[in-house]
Amino acid sequence: MKVLQRLAVLVMLCLPSLAQALPDDLGQQLLKGSWTEREQLASTLASSPDALSLKAAQLWLDGELFVLKSSKQLVLSVKEDKRYRVTDLVSGADLGLHKKRAIKKVPLNNKLRGLLRTTLSLQNLQSPNKDLRREAIENLLGDTSAESLALLNQVQQQEQNTDLQALIATGLAVDALESGTPQEQIKAAQQLGDSNHPVAAQALLAQQANTDDQALLAAINKSLADIEQRRRFYGAIENTFFGLSLGSVLLLSAIGLAITFGVMGVINMAHGEMIMLGAYTTFVVQSLLPDHIGASLFISLPLAFLVAGATGVLIERTVIRHLYGRPLETLLATFGVSLILQQAVRSIFSPLNQSVITPEWMSGSIVINEMLSLTVNRVVVIGFSLAVFLGLLFVLKYTRAGLSMRAVTQNRAMASSMGIRTGQVDALTFGLGSGIAGIAGVALSQLTNVGPNLGQNYIIDSFMVVVFGGVGNLWGTFVAAMGLGIVNKFIEPWAGAVIAKILVLVFIILFIQKRPRGLFALKGRAIES
Amino acid sequence: MTTKLQGGSVTRLLLNDRGGRWFLATLAIATVLVLALNLLVPESSPLHVSTYMVTLLGKYLCYGLLALALDLVWGYCGILSLGHGAFFALGGYAMGMYLMRQIGDRGVYGNPDLPDFMVFLDWQTLPWYWQGFDQFWFAALMVLLVPGVLAFLFGWLAFRSRVTGVYLSIITQALTYALMLMFFQNDFGFGGNNGLTDFKDILGFDLQADSTRAVLFLLSSLALIAGYLLCRALVNSRYGRVLVAVRDAESRTRFLGYRVEHFKLLAFVVSAMLAGIAGALYVPQVGIINPGEFSPINSIELVIWVAIGGRGTLFGAVIGALMVSYAKTWFTGAFPEVWLFALGALFVVSTLWLPKGLVGVVGPVLERWRTHRQQPALKEVADHG
Asked: In the 8-state DSSP scheme, what is residue A450?
């Protein structure tokens, strides 16, 4: 409330100046006036609530504000060949190319620089927007001049938000560590040990090299150890998160295969192309509805399921049906289908990658603290893959269709004599697996390039996951996908991405030697046939 | 006729192999013909076969040898390897390393000790695994040993723990995929993305010369003939009959007391070595070897050669390789868009309607035609008798 009140007062005080945002002769005054006059102008500009004045002040501070000599207009200029492209500051109009002599930079000295910076920072530090305030404080943390210290001291009293208070305290402690009395230094060193901000560690390290005070050194070392321990902890959490994210991608791409290969025993090499179809469905939906990118994913999901599912049923009815019981032939035929689908996409769209837009609500990241932030799209994909997985489990366990699917895969002849149309169930199961691959394609379109080779990149990984987890076992697929994802991400930091991938492949190849039926092998006589 | 056939072990080998006899005879005649038309007929003549064509045919023959190698394990032992391209590429790399060392100081950087890409990567000394490759005999040995040892290790692990069927196919695919990723790495020491290329000469002969090309073509043809005879000898022997038994009923063969994994392992290793030789002959003819050769699709394309030609016949696999490769060259030249459609359709058609391949279709037709022709003769004999 207090902030709001203060804000209201501030706005009222500044109202008169709003009307005369930028005086017409400002350019003239800035060029010809004395330094004292410029200081006055600077503090007026930088403390004005008007956006244009603030922009002018910021440009002035950055040394990017010019005056066009002929008309005395305030302008921006960009170098083009040997001349300068000049644009009007107020209207943004293009004023053409000018020689260097035709424009003059607005003069700036150290005193003015300090004045501008302090006033501008104060503006932001008192802004009602929390993110702006955070940014302003972060800017001050980097530099240790007396004026920024004064600013920090000033806002420390006013700041209500505890996160920002901590940030300010860190800034003050950094300063105390550098220039305080020995007692203050030790206290600051201890205090910085609790901060997650990179500035804290930097300041501690710098002071560690400079000081030979034993008590201070001990405090610094302890704080550094604390920070290092926390960094390792959050690093592990981050790795796990990346691992889960990779795992959920693997899970999404493999889960359809877990049905067609795992439950039905059909080697579908065109599985990757079903994923690709899903991704292209997203692309088509987005190009048809360019104004509703946010909603496009929700339209794409059922569509992708239908497109990929229908293609799957078609493949099952025309090709795979004739090859049941001949796994190697199925493998070859479906590989042929995958080549045809790839080339079809290449001919219809283009051999190049298509750009699929990430909607607003999926971009950005969730900041937990200075050491840990999670990107939203990965969080969404993790949640989505879990939802798909659980949904699939539910369908297989608790619906009539799922019951028939399980019956047919367990004992085809018996199921048939109980009145289940096995042919229909086969088509349905294959369609379900393919449809889920299509859904996976929608999710993957948000993480990788959408191109004709999208499917190929996932097919080997998908098979590895299913085989590793154990054929015919959805939970095995789940554990294998997450496990491989996490292991991969923990190897990556010290081995590199490609070597990590190779190591995982080699590991699986060796693992299959040991347990040819995967992690969670089904037991019983039926398996041997 | 029979007296002539009993002349040598080779003829005895082909006694019951009518298709093989035709195949080898055609191959030998075609080889001589192509070489004669290339070397003896002047270029202005319409009958002249260009050196480009000779090299292209030599490339096809290498593919034929590779297909033969796969047919030995897939057609006779039931091991569908989706990673046979890896052995081919390893043989190719071994030869490529020799050719690379032969460049000497004629590279772009003119460094007599290091190949160009190592100079580019700022390496100071030759890595240990490149030592010895300046000797042809060592490279030739490695062409056999590297694929052979890899196949032995991989096969020993896989067959011992009874990984069979599609599982084996998928992990062989993973093997070649992993190797591809590895060879794409620049610091792995095999030229990364670009692979090995820019070869100058082999055993002192200029690789660009027509005569060298002709000799390489001849060698490919001889290797194919020798490979065919070796495979035929293997499958005709007692060992070969056990191999077929393993293919048809693995468990039963095991219960009869055979060490199934040993039989499979031998076939796998021999096949990998043949593939390595094919790769080694391929590289000097095309002038480059890069990690793309490891890509899983190459290995799968190889499977379709064998499936189209007819698995379990040896010569069918070679015919399939030659035909599909020629079709690929023609299609990618004339209708590049259509090639993958055609290849995909080939996969589907051959598995659905041609389970025995072209040999399975053409063979019985020829047989009927032959017996039909002999029928009157037999009748005549009967009448007179």
From this structure: B
